[in-house]
Amino acid sequence: MISVSGLTFSYKGAPGPALNGVSLTVPEASVYGLLGPSGSGKSTTQKILMGLLVGFGGTATVFGEAPAHSGRSFYERIGVSFELPALYGRLTARENLALFAALFADAPLSPDTVLDMVDLRDAADQRIETFSKGMKMRLNLARALLNDPPLLFLDEPTTGQDPARARTTRHLIARLRDRGKTVFLTTHNMSEAAEICDTVGFLVDGRIALEGRPAELMAQFGKPELVATARRNGALTTEHFAMEGLAGNAAFQDLLQTGDIVSLHTREASLDDIFVAVAGGGK
C-alpha cells in the first residue's frame, strides 16, 4: 500500500534535513505507527505521502503511484484526520459531514452512519462550537470515513479523549483494519501504539532508527527477570528476580514457601522504555 525508500527532504532555511533517508513499507490491511519525538519528521513524512509536499529526494509511492502525480482520484481513496480538527463551528455535526461528503465524487457512507461509528449520533444536531476537543477529534475521524477509503492517515486520533472514548476509537481502528483498511498512524501515545499497531517505526533525526512488531520489540528490550507480587504481613510487596539460576535462588524459593503470591510475570519493556532508549527522551 505504501512504499518509501531513501526519502529525504529539507525545508528552506532549516539548519539540517527534516528527513534523511527514511525507508519503510506498509502492507494492505495493517496499522503502521510512525513514532518519534517532536520535530523528528513525522508530519513531513505524512505530508509527502498525502501529496502535499514535493521537492523531496528518494521515492514514495501510495497505491503504487507517486501521490503528487495521482490527481483527484488519489484523494477519493484516502481519508485524513489531522491532530487539529478543521471544522465549521457554526454548523452542526451532521451539516459539517454533509458539506464534506459533497466534495467527493462518491461518499458511500452517510453522515449518520459515520456518526454512529464514532459514537456521536446523539450530538448530530449540535453546533461544533459547543463541542469539546475530544468530540471534535471524533468528528474529524468521522469525516475521514465518509468516502470509505482503503487508506487512512490518522494524526494523534485520540487526543483530548477520556480513557473510555479513547478505547472506543482504538477498537474502531482495529475493526477498520480487520475490514481490510490500511492505517498510517502517528502518535505520542506509546500504549496506544502497542495495542493497535501491527508495526511501529521510530523516527529519530530524520531516519527510521528502529522498526518492528510491538510485542517483539518489547521482548527484545525487556530485562530477563521475573517480577513477583506477594502479600507479606498484610502488605503487598514487589520483588524482582533474575531469570538465570531462578530454581536455585534462595530468596525466590523463600517467597514461594512463605509469601502469599498474588502475581508472577516476566518483565517486558514498554514502548515508552523503547522510545526513551532510541530517541533519548524526545523533545
From TrEMBL:
Q: Which residues form a coiled coil?
A: none
Give yes or no: UniProt keyword Transport.
Answer: yes
The Gene Ontology terms for molecular function here are: ATP binding
Membership in a protein family:
Belongs to the ABC transporter superfamily.
TM ranges: none
Species whose genome carries this gene: Pelagibacterium flavum
Q: Which UniProt keywords apply?
A: ATP-binding, Nucleotide-binding, Transport
The answer on whether this UniProt entry bears the keyword Methyltransferase reads no
Q: From the Swiss-Prot or TrEMBL record, give the protein name.
A: ABC transporter ATP-binding protein
Per UniProt, residues of the ABC transporter domain are 2-230
